Amino acid sequence: AALSTARTAVDTARAAQDRGLPETERTVAEERRRARVVSSRARFLDPDAGRPNDGPRPTPAIPTTPVIPIIPVSSTTPVSATTSVSPATPVSATVPATPAGRTAPVRPATPLRPAHQDETDELLLFAPPAGAPLATSTGPAP
């Protein structure tokens, strides 16, 4: 119902617009309007219509997820008991001067661990001794 009301309103507006034109110009204006409607519908249905044929459009590349290599870890790899772990850096607390009545946060003077240290040092600390079976159950020990 709303669509037919809208079409009637458009037709009434066009008729009022065309009243002042002679018959031939009215027909030409109506033909142009129809051609515009047809071309806009055709463009909607086929976006490539009316364009020069310069070959097929390239299909957009489908983004692929990067492949992360999985490195197999053998359960029989011996874990060295003599793995060297760097000693902990001593932490010395310094209290900077602050205005009276306020306390300053205590910050370590040196970093707790050098930034270049590898995490594997810590992982090796918790590895089972060589020859011990690896725990596979998440429940309590029998």
Average pLDDT reading: 64
Number of strands: 2
- Major sheet, described briefly? 2 strands, antiparallel
Helix content range of the residues, please?
Answer: 25-40%
**Rg over C-alpha atoms, rounded to the nearest angstrom:** 40 Å
> Which structural class best describes the helix and strand composition?
mainly alpha
N- and C-termini, Cα separation: 77 Å
Low-confidence region ranges: none
Strand-residue fraction? under 5%
Helix and strand sequence: HHEEH
Arrangement of strands in the largest sheet: 1-2
So what's the overall shape? elongated
Helical run tally:
3
What's the structural blueprint in terms of helices and strands?
Blueprint: H1 2-18, H2 23-45, E1 93-94, E2 107-108, H3 120-125
Antiparallel strand pairs: 1-2
